[in-house]
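Hi R.,

Here's the chain you asked about this morning:
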Amino acid sequence: MATMNVSLPDPLRDYVQQRIDSGQYASVSDYVRDLIRRDQSVVVDEERWLKDLDASIEASLKEMEAGGGHDLHDVCAEIIADIEATADRKQH
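And here is the predicted structure, written out as tokens:
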């Protein structure tokens, strides 16, 4: 296992020590390893989300090229008409 030295300002060092003293972590190394694992998980989740988003956009573009989908102007007009109808019903 490799060793790394990290310099922290006093408030951060004190915070880490509080986490250890509370029993949440066994040592500074345990705390840092947990932070790194959490960061790795976030990065993996973001990469998965972006990959899924890219696939969704690609599928939508193919659908649009094949004549599918809905015209944005028409969809917005329907939404506005629904909002106006709801407002009219609430006023009467």
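One quick note: The chain has one domain: 10-91.

Cheers,
M.
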